[in-house]
Amino acid sequence: MLQRFFILCSGADTDILNTCSKGEQNKYAGIGATVFFTALMATIACSYALYTIFETIYSAVFFGIIWGLLIFNLDRYIVSTIKKRNSFGQEFLQAIPRLILAIIIAVVISKPLEMKIFEKEINQVLLEEKNEMTLANQQQLAQQFTPNIDQLREEISALKQEITDKQAETDALYEIYINEAEGTAGTGLLGKGPVYEEKREKHDASLSELNSLKAGNHQKIQEKENQIALLNANYEKSVTKTQPIIDGFDGLMARINALEKLPWLPSFFIFLLFLAIETSPIIAKLLAPNGEYDLKLQDQETSLETWVHQKVMQRSHILQTDTELSQKIYDEIKEEEAVYAYKKQKAEELMKLQADAFQKAEIRSL
């Protein structure tokens, strides 16, 4: 039962193959098994590739089976159309388009399986790329907010510096009127005289201005710090909003590009493996000598070709003979007087009718 199924997969003529030896049947069963398992691997590879796209197993398996059936049909067609002849050169020329198609199929099959085999390495490459993209995204977003934040911080520093300068000025006035009271500077007189009162008034006025400046600048500083906090919150919100896009950067194209960044030799060996599997039925048929099945198939085809050629030749001779007979018959009829007289009579009657019809048409036109 299994052998019959694999023979069916090989595309061989079962009626002819049933009359061949067991060895010949086993050979084509092996070719059919190769075709079947190649289609099975194509189904698995396509299902995995589609799963990375749709992320639903049912859709991936459904379309994977369709793809596997397509590859099965192509492989079966490729193997079944290679005919064994006595010239290896003609056989090789016949197989070249099929070999090219087999190479294309091998590439299509091997690439998704390579992504599955090297999944961990691909994930590592994608993780590094995501980290780089995250940093680049943060830097790009920061360029939108950093100038405004820096400007606000400079304005805050200027406001604080203004308070510091005013504080230093007030402290200096305080030192002056204290030294005046102690008699260590200024007039040098101990006690609170007119000069002391004057300097004390300057200090008090400066202190009042300082307190007013602190109140106003602290309010401005608080407003600017609130603006900075709002800009930072907007920046964090932008980063949070764009991060899922970066986290989802693991589709089919991203994985193929990540695979290309890995060492090429392991992927090349996997490709060679599938290429060998895909082309093995074709190469086996090219290298194998003419078997019993090939000879019987050739006999059947040449027999039919000969029969068709014979029928065409017979029809050609029949047509030629019929043409010659018809020509001879008409030549003999042409020489008979009775036929001549009858044709003459009919021609005269026809000419009279034409003349009468012409006369009537001319009279109606007058």
Low-confidence stretches: none
Question: What is the strand tally?
Answer: 0
* Main structural class: mainly alpha
Largest sheet, in brief, is: none
Number of domains: 3
- Determine the fraction of residues in helical runs and give it as a percent range: over 70%
Tell me the radius of gyration: 51 Å
Oligomer: single chain
Mean pLDDT: 78
Query: Which strand-content bin applies to the residues?
Result: under 5%
End-to-end Cα distance:
95 Å
State the order of secondary-structure elements, H for helix, E for strand: HHHHHHHHHHH
Shape descriptor: elongated
Total count of helical runs of at least 4 residues? 11
Written description of the protein model:
This protein is mainly α and 366 residues long. It folds into three domains: 2-118 and 262-289, no CATH class; 135-250; 308-365, no CATH class. It is 88% helix and 0% strand. It is built from eleven helices and no strands. The protein has helices spanning 2-10, 14-17, 22-54, 57-80, 88-117, 119-182, 194-247, 252-260, 264-287, 292-334, 337-365. The mean pLDDT is 78.
Task: Please describe the topology of this protein.
Layout: H1 2-10, H2 14-17, H3 22-54, H4 57-80, H5 88-117, H6 119-182, H7 194-247, H8 252-260, H9 264-287, H10 292-334, H11 337-365
Helix pairs in contact: 1-3, 3-4, 3-5, 3-9, 5-9, 6-7, 6-8
Keywords: Coiled coil, Membrane, Transmembrane, Transmembrane helix
Organism: Euzebyella saccharophila
Transmembrane segments: 28-51, 57-74, 95-113, 268-288
